[in-house]
Design goal:
By secondary structure, the protein is of the alpha/beta class. The protein contains 19 helices and 14 strands. Strands 2-1-3-4-5 form a five-stranded parallel β-sheet, sandwiched between helices. Strands 7-8-11-6-12 form a five-stranded parallel β-sheet. Helix 1 links the parallel strand 1 and strand 2.
Length: 443
């Protein structure tokens, strides 16, 4: 419970304010002198102060209030302080607001205005404490991550810090890892990090885009082939599994692997055994497998296009990589990183980068920055240099027309980002919030 300190030399005023603020569930403490107030701030955890400006019948200048205000600021920087003033103190109250006071209220005060002011300030203070704690936690996480090889990945968002903390913990094991996420989000870089921080870092790291392999060559690419095994095979060749023996194999675009390839992949994962194409000799390998996909594999299982047993074999640990729109804190730092001091971003360009939905994720951002750096003049990138495609504008709809299903679909399509979901529905963010509240989707 937040504690509010009331400082007024008139005990009746302190009692009246206490009764008023207790209506909102606040706990109050009262002091009648600046000396007692400063001692109270040292001894108790105070969330907000309401202080009078005068503390003796002989003085109406407000100088005592000014001295107390600065002393409170010195003892607890950032403490919200509301000043209670008579008309003679108004100029000084304005001066102290410029110096950091949260607000001032005249005597006699308006009960509703005072309660609203206090509640708003306490909520703002609570949010600031949460943000400070989040920043502290993120700084601690980044410090821990600095011990690991992040393969040049830039980390600026809580979502990516949390994901990389998990990745670096998982890296030390030999468990299979499935990396999911949209195209261009950085799944291959996560695979690099897993291998670079594993005990296999000095062993082979073989990458293969299984979705790009022609079905007729898939088996030869993964498991190798003997001379004459197929037209054009003039000599024996090893496959990717053999090449990765003792190390790590990264299977990208896993969702595009045909069922025939899934069966053969499952066997080698279960037994560590395989045969080259055109050979009956069984070979053994020990390989750590990391795979990645942008496909919805559970939906593919339901559709019969992906084997459930293979999914559970590969999905021992899943790392879900969010798209760039879901980690907006990364957009401008990544843009600056890609620029590498080749040019500067104008304010309009920064706004355009932050407003763009980034369907192509980090890869799209990197390409946009490279193009803009080449086309810009005088070393300054403007919005036109970015040449970002504007997303189609949805037809305007009345909020009352939106049902829960439409809102849920919009939120899912835009990663839960309210502003983007609202824009796609053709309404404002505030209208979307109100509609969600009416549908009891917000609690």
């Amino acid at each position: 419970m937040d504690r509010i300190l009331i400082i007024d030399d008139n005990p009746a005023i302190g009692e009246a304010l206490s009764l008023l603020l207790e209506l909102d569930g606040h706990q109050t403490l009262c002091c009648t002198s600046p000396e007692a107030a400063l001692e109270m701030v040292e001894q108790e955890e105070i969330a907000l102060v309401i202080q009078d400006m005068n503390f003796s019948a002989d003085t109406t200048s407000g100088n005592e209030g000014r001295t107390l205000f600065h002393a409170l600021q010195a003892k607890q920087p950032g403490l919200p302080i509301v000043l209670l003033t008579a008309w003679t103190d108004l100029a000084m109250a304005v001066e102290l607001v410029k110096a950091g006071a949260a607000d001032y209220l005249g005597k006699p005060w308006d009960d509703q205005k005072l309660r609203l002011t206090v509640n708003n300030l306490l909520e703002l203070s609570r949010l600031r404490r949460q943000e400070k704690a989040r920043h502290y936690q993120q700084a601690s996480q980044l410090k821990r991550l600095s011990r690991f090889d992040l393969c040049g990945m830039q980390v600026h968002s809580p979502a990516m810090v949390a994901l990389l903390e998990t990745a670096t913990r998982v890296a030390a094991s030999d468990l299979p890892v499935l990396i999911t996420g949209p195209n261009g989000a950085g799944k291959e870089r996560i695979a690099d990090i897993l291998h670079a921080n594993s005990s296999l870092r000095d062993q082979p790291f073989i990458k293969v885009n299984v979705g790009a392999l022609p079905p007729e060559l898939m088996e030869a690419e993964l498991f190798g082939a003997e001379a004459g095994a197929y037209t054009g095979a003039t000599k024996a060749r090893i496959g990717r599994f053999e090449a990765a023996d003792g190390g790590t194999l990264f299977l990208d675009e896993l969702g595009n692997l045909p069922l025939s390839g899934q069966i053969k992949l499952l066997r080698v994962l279960q037994t560590g055994e395989f045969e080259r194409l055109g050979s009956h000799q069984t070979r053994k390998v020990r390989v750590r497998v990391i795979s990645a996909t942008n496909a919805d594999l559970p939906a593919a299982i339901q559709a019969g296009t992906f084997r459930e047993d293979l999914y559970y074999r590969l999905n021992v640990v899943q790392l879900a990589l969010p798209g760039l729109a879901e980690r907006p804190e990364e957009i401008l730092p990544l843009a600056e990183h890609f620029l590498a001091e080749q040019a500067q971003l104008s304010e309009a360009a920064c706004r355009a980068l932050m407003a763009h939905p980034w369907p192509g994720n980090v890869r799209e951002l990197e390409n946009a920055i490279a193009r803009a750096a080449l086309l810009c003049q005088n070393g300054v990138i403007n919005e036109a240099d970015l040449a970002l495609e504007r997303p189609p504008v949805a037809p305007t709809r009345s909020p009352a027309e939106l049902d829960e299903e439409a809102i849920t679909q919009a939120l899912a399509c835009h990663g839960g980002v309210i502003a983007r979901a609202a824009r796609s529905l053709g309404i404002s963010r505030q209208q979307l919030y109100r509609r969600m509240e009416k549908l009891e989707m917000v609690r």
